[in-house]
Structure to design on (696 residues):
């Protein structure tokens, strides 16, 4: 696993690459079309480069200039990580209380699992459409997370889906009957 | 018709069962929509437009404005309880509202929010009525170049409140601006960053990006955290809504000042409530007796932005009605509703149809009162929501998010985009690139580009130097951006000097 500093550099490099890509693409547009994107991309490149340079110059120290300190004369309280802002989410990768798993498992659970969860929901939406996806996802999550038994999970999921159907399908008149397999299901239901 | 007669006639027009019923329906509808991520005021009002034909104007306008005001407080609720702003204008409520929830003071925060919004709405309406004769010449002085600089200033000011470093905050803002440029350029009709896909030609929808970058990302974070938003074992509810109500009267002058900020920001067309709520928050810090407590759950940090948001609606009515210039996107919808009803906004609204103007002002007051009453009644129930276990919250909220994303344009691709922004938001949160700045950059991007093009066309390339007001605002922008660095450098030098002196003794 990478150290926090290495991760920060990687993220900065990706952002730098994105700004450079935007700059490259913008140069292909007409003068009026690129009038704002080009300076913004250049500014972004300067800012991210400055952030990386500053991090290098000030080892172990993020750039923490806080204008709220300007207003408070430096009296504003500072959280343990020194930024003095509203509580920042604990980095799951750094949180020692996140679990007693070894490094690889902790990395999997903290990094890959949330993306996998969102990916699963998206696949369900694409294949089965909004309503069926909600029913399957909520029922599956309630049951597999141990929140409730299968019958109760199905009931809760059906109630949730029913409420969503009323709110979005009936009141807002959104067509929830979409998805890759819905035409086949509709034929089956009609038959 | 003189002002007093117009006030009375405008109020009487609302004293019909249909008008009062419609305002109530609008408020409840708006509250529900406001709490749902992504379905903000603009969506709520859009869905009501078809009802413009067939109902009396006062009743329909009551429902329309009532829904809009309901969504404002609804978006404040999600900011306070879940650290997820329902709209960009509710962003500052995250700074102190959410820490109050974490401390077990969710009811107090919600009570303070509801009462501040009510007082802001009433104060804003009163001052608006008094200011109508004065405001008009001032509004006409502002040109596109001044609006451009104010939009840029809004971005840099917001960057200074970002979590993490200012450089990261500004980087996030730049990224947000560039994302907003995806799609067809409105000035030259050039497809930008579309990769020849039809979907991206329409650009990235703002509500979808918001759903992903805040709501989906929060659920991803909660999934990893594996607990409730507020740990049940540690935090008990230690407050009531009436504590929050009392807080407003303990800080009544802050409420008044924040309301005036909201009113004037609302009056200036195109600025948007986001800038106003941030400005109000900064003002609260500046004038507080305990500035060091901001960011940790200071109720003043909730009162000021909400009072501003309450007053902003009244202010936004003035340029909309008097000049046909919408004060924001929701006011643009109001304009459409007017045209549908055969009413033409313009200077004559302040002379021949002044009673209609006061009808709208009274609607803002009544709707604000209803929102406060309903809000205070349901706040104890809403305050329990963060204590729900994660395994209960995650599937429901994620489902609402993705269905909400689908609802915006009826496309499955929007759901995928919401998921993508969810991943981006999760990573931004992890590495301290401010999501708030990103979203504000998206919001202000169109205003920046449009006003820049207009300024160059009207005033030439050197408009910055040929227009004194523009130059003044620009210098103010540079000062407020550079000053934090200068001050920090001075503070470090002072500390180093103290250390050196202490060591030499």
């Amino acid at each position: 696993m990478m150290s926090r500093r290495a991760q920060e550099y990687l993220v900065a490099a990706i952002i730098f690459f994105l700004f450079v890509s935007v700059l490259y693409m913008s140069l292909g547009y007409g003068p009026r079309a690129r009038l704002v994107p080009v300076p913004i991309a250049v500014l972004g490149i300067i800012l991210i480069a400055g952030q990386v340079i500053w991090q290098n110059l000030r080892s172990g120290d993020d750039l923490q200039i806080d204008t709220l300190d300007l207003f408070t004369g430096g009296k504003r309280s500072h959280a343990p990580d020194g930024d003095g802002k509203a509580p920042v989410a604990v980095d799951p990768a750094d949180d020692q209380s996140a679990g007693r798993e070894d490094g690889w498992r902790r990395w999997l659970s903290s990094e890959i699992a949330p993306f996998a969860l969102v990916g699963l929901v998206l696949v369900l939406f694409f294949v089965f459409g909004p309503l069926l996806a909600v029913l399957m996802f909520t029922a599956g999550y309630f049951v597999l997370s141990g929140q409730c038994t299968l019958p109760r999970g199905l009931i809760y999921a059906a109630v949730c889906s029913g409420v969503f159907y009323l709110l979005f399908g009936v009141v807002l008149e959104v067509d929830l009957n979409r998805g890759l397999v819905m035409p086949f299901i509709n034929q089956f239901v009609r038959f | 018709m003189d002002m007093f007669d117009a006030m009375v006639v405008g109020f009487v027009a609302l004293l019909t069962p249909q008008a009062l019923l419609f305002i109530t329906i609008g408020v409840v509808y708006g509250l529900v929509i406001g709490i749902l991520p992504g379905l903000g005021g603009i969506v709520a009002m859009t869905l009501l437009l078809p009802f413009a034909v067939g109902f009396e104007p006062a009743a329909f306008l009551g429902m329309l404005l009532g829904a809009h005001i309901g969504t404002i407080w609804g978006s404040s609720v999600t900011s306070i309880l879940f650290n997820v702003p329902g709209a960009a204008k509710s962003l500052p409520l995250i700074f102190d509202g959410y820490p109050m929830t974490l401390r077990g003071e969710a009811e107090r925060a919600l009570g303070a929010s509801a009462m501040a919004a009510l007082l802001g709405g009433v104060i804003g309406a009163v001052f608006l009525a008094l200011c109508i004769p004065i405001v008009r010449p001032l509004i006409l002085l502002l040109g596109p170049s001044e609006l451009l600089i104010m939009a840029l200033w809004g971005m840099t000011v917001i960057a200074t409140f970002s979590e993490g470093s200012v450089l990261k905050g500004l980087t996030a803002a730049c990224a947000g601006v560039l994302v907003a440029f995806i799609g067809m350029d409105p000035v030259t009709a050039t497809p930008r960053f579309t990769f020849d896909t039809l979907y991206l030609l329409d650009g990235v929808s703002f509500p979808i990006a918001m759903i992903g970058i805040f709501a989906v990302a929060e659920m991803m974070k909660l999934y990893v955290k594996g607990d409730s938003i507020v740990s049940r074992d540690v935090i008990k509810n230690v407050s009531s809504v009436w504590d929050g109500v009392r807080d407003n009267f303990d800080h009544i002058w802050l409420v008044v000042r924040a309301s005036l900020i909201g009113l004037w920001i609302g009056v200036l067309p195109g600025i948007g409530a986001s800038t106003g709520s941030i400005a109000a928050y900064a003002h609260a810090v500046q004038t507080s007796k305990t500035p060091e407590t901001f960011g940790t759950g200071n109720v003043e940090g909730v009162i000021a932005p909400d009072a501003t948001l309450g007053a902003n609606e009244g202010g936004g009515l003035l340029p909309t009605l008097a000049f046909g210039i919408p004060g924001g996107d929701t006011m643009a919808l109001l304009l459409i509703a007017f045209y549908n009803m055969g009413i033409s906004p313009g200077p004559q609204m302040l002379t021949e149809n002044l009673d209609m103007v006061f009808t709208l002002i009274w609607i803002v007051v009544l709707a604000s009162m209803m929102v406060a009453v309903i809000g205070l009644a349901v706040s104890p129930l809403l305050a329990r929501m963060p204590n729900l276990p994660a395994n209960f919250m995650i599937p429901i909220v994620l489902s609402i998010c993705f269905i909400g994303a689908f609802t915006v344009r009826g496309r499955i691709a929007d759901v995928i985009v919401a998921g993508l922004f969810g991943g981006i938001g999760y990573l931004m949160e992890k590495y301290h690139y401010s999501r708030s700045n990103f979203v504000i950059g998206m919001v202000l991007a169109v205003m920046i580009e449009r006003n820049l093009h207009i300024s160059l066309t009207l005033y030439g390339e050197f408009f910055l130097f040929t227009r004194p007001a523009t130059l003044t605002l620009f210098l103010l922008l540079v000062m407020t951006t550079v000053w934090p660095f200068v001050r920090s450098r001075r503070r470090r030098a002072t500390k180093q000097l103290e250390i050196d002196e202490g060591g030499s003794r």
Summary: The first helix of chain B runs from residue 3 to 12. Chain B touches chain A through 85 residues (CB under 8 Å).
